[in-house]
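Morning run. Coffee first, then this:
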Amino acid sequence: MSPRRTALLAGLALVPSLWPGAVAQGAGSADLKALGTAYALYVGAGYLRDTCVKRDPASAAKVNQAYAAWIKAQNLGAFEAQLTQRVGRAALTQLRADMAGSLQALDSALQKLGPASRSCPALATQFSSDTFDVRAQVPNLAAALGTGGAAPTPSASASSRPAGASANVAVYSVAQLSSLMAQTLAPLGKASGQQQDAAGLKKLQSLGTVIAVSGTTQRSRSITQEDDRRAARFDVYCYDMANDADNPPKGQVTVAGRVREFDHVTGITLDSCVVLSAAQAAGLKQSTLAVVDAGWQFKAQPAEKFLVAAGQGLKDSEILGAYIEQSTGIGVGGMVLTTYPVSLFLKDGTVYNDPYWAPGSFNYKLSRQLEPQKWGKWTRQGKDFVIRWGDGKTGTFEVKGESRALPAGTKLNGAFQTISGGGNTALGGDLMVVGGGTYTFRPDGTFSGGRFGGSSGPGVAVSSSRKTGGTYAVSGYGLTLRGQGGEEQRLFFARYDQDLLYIGGSPYTPDR
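And here it is:
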């Protein structure tokens, strides 16, 4: 058995020992055990999907698709509604609350698989494995549910509307609820995750038994809100939408449901969600709850947005230095590697952690507006720095190397390469992604090189390459590459020793 499956199985040990009130509903002990096992897998899969969608947006589409395929293959579209009818809503609600500690253990198991950028793509492949095969582990599920066969998909009728839904229900935007949660958590300081979750849930439940939420969805159970520079910090999830169990809507949507859960990492979950028609939504009042900055998180922007003409950006005289620290990253096949990312420290007490363009061609003022999460304010602590980042997080930057501005006309000599990647072969999977580039610099001011990339999976392999050459010029923290066709690139450049260069923010080492 692979380590990743062992970890997930350990984390999925959620089978309940007590169902309050279930016996009164007529369910025997054998049925309860079967239903408990199935519900544990169902809740665990949903929780893992929530976590990965939030933590690793790059793999969200893949994880969502795998989860939806799993729901359909396991015939679980109406499972929670059927289980509620079988054991009673009070018993199911209490059981779901009792699982909070086990879900945190499951989260820990997921984190042991590595960073989200590695574990979440791997999780997508696991949904189709034996680990999440509910029907195989609980072959008597239909009998325990009392359905005797396949679960029908509930229809969008008036009876499917959550109890208490009426014109008195307020419609909140995802951003409004995200802001409410951010403001609720702010005073808690270093409170535990369970304390944060409890405080958020209490605040949400104070809004009413049933709430309505408006936002957008991409045919998933996740309802979000965003613009071109930011996204709501906490999304809203509706897994048991009563009128679209296998085909969630796409685009603008308004739903109504009971608040079931708040997770300070993933977001807000509603129970018994119903998608409202335009006429139904129009009949509800709009909330006037304030939207505050803390309710948003800023999205990564394309580097091209911050390119300006040479000399219109930062001046080398404004830069304190380009420093590197030790961190970890993902390599070819998903292997965890030790990395040394670079940050640009300015004399005005600010720091930027994603240099790509030569400073003189970098629109730092626009960057500070559109991607403040990449900027921080530093104070010196010996040879290291303490940084308070734009998203409110504080950390110590332990300096592992420093680069100063190089004199104009500095010459380079040698071949250098960079390599990056992803995939899951390091976890026993079959997906490998590789990318990189090489440059050969000569003392006469000429260079040659190119970029390459590729991926491989079951029965498929893709590769690409692009070669170039021309002249180069080093000055300060910039490297200007002029191609033979007249094209020009002005990239960030730093040299730490003869064995480590940074070009455009990527590390290059000698190609021996």
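The chain has three domains: 1-152, 153-299, 301-512. Good start to the day.
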